[in-house]
Specification:
This protein has 509 residues and is α/β, with parallel strands linked by helices. 47% of the residues lie in helices and 7% in strands. The strands form three sheets. Strands 5-4-3-6-8-7 form a six-stranded mixed sheet, sandwiched between helices. It has a two-stranded antiparallel ribbon with strand order 1-2. Helix 13 packs parallel to helix 15. It starts with a helix and ends with a helix.
Length: 509
């Protein structure tokens, strides 16, 4: 094992890198394999780069290999792709940004066909638009809705687009078998026998290459600290980010088998899949106490997703407008109620708190933006047309103005909706006097308004019928009706089984 102290000794003796061996294999042999694979065909390479130690090692190995090839051999492109979820730990963003910029500068200066890119989730699928706009509960191990939308899809789109242009691609990853037994099984499952490549788990015409698959963490650090980065600079900033913690990085995610990164220094600061965010804790304890408000807000989200708090935070209805119950339970025991999105009032509070945290952090980090303003525009749209609680009060502009009184957003006029807070109050009073939830006539009026100006109002009756068929009674009434219907169905089933049994019993066997 190589200690951190021993690793730093290599900084003063770069020539020692020629003598290094990892996973029982000389480094020179691995470099040669990378060169052979690069020059063997015309398939472009895509390197998944998270900014952490493993992906940095892969980029460093590839750059070192290409540097030693004659210029006429550098024919096919190498794309370095970094997935930015827009909720990455802030210090990590700085490390990744510096690395990508310095790689692009080196590639241009050396006339190497390599380029570094950041990819982002579609604005409609960002963390905040889903959580604050649609009201999705904070991610958990049972409902981890964030990974595919924010990580897999942006990278997959880049790979697919590259495949469409070149026919096939090879994706280089910093995955290591020692990360976890499940990861090792996935790697082995997709390995192509007799080659150093594997098949991509979900994308056709995409192959994977994992040059450090057999390395351990100590070997990764030994390599990184053995010499300066081959494109420029050193890995000391990266080492400092890890120092004092045994947490790992969040690898580039290309499939759903990758575990949550909530315990790593290179995961999202909003991750609630894990109970405790050791990453933020470690960074704060190491001196970055300006991130304490982030940790407190993350913990607030975590508590909102706990089952014991579901009634307080989440609507009794799903976004479909229906009250749902778990169908897995058997017999006549009470079925578990499956709650829906966050109540609109809770979403209002979350947005206000998030903006307050951003404003506080800006006192020391003026350029910090925790939520993009285009995300706020989309969140407002989702609130105005929410399937259960349409926000006719148009609350978001007012919330933003109260937090940032000296800052104006050019809110899109067409988003303001046709109804106002006064309209909502009138419908609320009428609804209460007739025992009707105000949201019902609100959604009916919205459906009617959508058809204004249409020559043939095709589908209106069907839309109105769909609205009326949703669950509009209070929750206890709906539960009672559900249990009665279920009990009647259960009794009918029992009677049917008894009749069948009596019929069989009468047979002369």
């Amino acid at each position: 094992m190589t200690s951190q102290k021993e690793v730093f000794l290599y900084d003063d003796h770069p020539s020692l890198i020629q003598e290094l061996a990892f996973a029982g294999r000389p480094l020179a042999d691995l470099i040669y394999e990378i060169q052979e694979l690069y020059t063997s065909d015309s398939r472009p390479w895509i390197i998944g780069f998270s900014g952490g130690k493993d992906s940095t090692t892969v980029v460093s190995l590839v750059v070192s290999a290409l540097q030693q090839l004659p210029i006429e051999s550098l024919k096919k492109p190498v794309f370095i792709v970094s997935s930015d979820t827009l909720v990455e730990t802030p210090l990590v963003i700085d490390v990744i940004k510096e690395a990508l910029e310095s790689i692009n500068k080196w590639a241009k200066d050396s006339d190497t066909p390599m380029s570094a890119h950041s990819v982002f989730p579609n604005t409609e699928q960002t963390f905040w638009v889903n959580l604050l706009g649609r009201g999705y509960p904070a991610p958990s191990s049972k409902f981890r809705w964030c990974t595919e939308r924010m990580k897999i899809d942006p990278v997959s789109e880049f790979i697919v687009n590259t495949v469409s242009e070149y026919g096939e691609v090879i994706v280089l990853l910093g995955s290591r078998s020692q990360e976890s037994s499940s990861r090792a099984q996935v790697i082995a499952k997709h390995r192509i026998e007799g080659t150093s490549l594997g098949r991509h788990s979900s994308l056709p015409n995409a192959y994977t290459y994992m040059p450090i698959v057999d390395w351990n963490a100590d070997e990764v650090w030994e390599y990184l600290m053995s010499a300066p980065r081959p494109w420029s600079g050193t890995n000391r900033a990266l080492f400092d980010l890890y120092k004092g913690s045994n947490q790992g990085e969040c690898p580039l995610v290309i499939d759903k088998s990758t575990p949550s990164c909530g315990n790593s220094r290179f995961g999202c600061w909003t991750c609630t899949v894990v109970t405790e965010d050791k990453a933020l804790h470690g960074l704060i304890e190491a001196g970055d106490d300006w991130m304490l408000p982030l940790l407190e807000f993350r913990n607030q989200l975590y508590q909102s997703a706990q089952p014991e708090n579901s009634t307080e935070f989440r609507n009794s209805k799903r976004r479909t407008g229906i009250v749902s119950f778990d169908k897995k339970s058997d017999g006549m025991e009470e079925r578990k109620h499956i709650r829906g999105p966050y109540w609109m009032a809770k979403r209002h509070l979350f947005v206000r708190d998030l903006l307050e945290v951003e404003k506080e952090i800006r006192l020391t980090k003026p350029d910090m933006e925790l939520i993009k303003r285009e995300e706020l525009q989309l969140i407002r749209q989702h609130w105005l047309t929410d399937p259960n609680e349409p926000d006719w009060k148009d609350s978001l502009p007012q919330i933003y103005a109260e937090v940032y009184p000296d800052d104006e957003i050019n809110w899109i006029e067409s988003d303001a909706g046709a109804f106002s807070a006064v309209d909502e109050e009138i419908l609320r009073e009428i609804g209460l006097s007739h025992g009707i939830p105000p949201e019902l006539p609100m959604k009916l009026l919205e459906a009617e308004l959508d058809q204004i100006g249409e020559t043939r109002r095709r589908g209106l009756l069907k839309k109105l019928d769909s609205i009326l068929s949703k669950d509009w009674e209070d929750f206890e009434t709906i539960r009672t009706r559900h249990e009665y219907e279920r009990s009647s169905s259960y009794d009918s089933k029992i009677e049917s089984l008894r009749a069948a049994y009596d019929e069989v019993a009468e047979l002369d066997v």
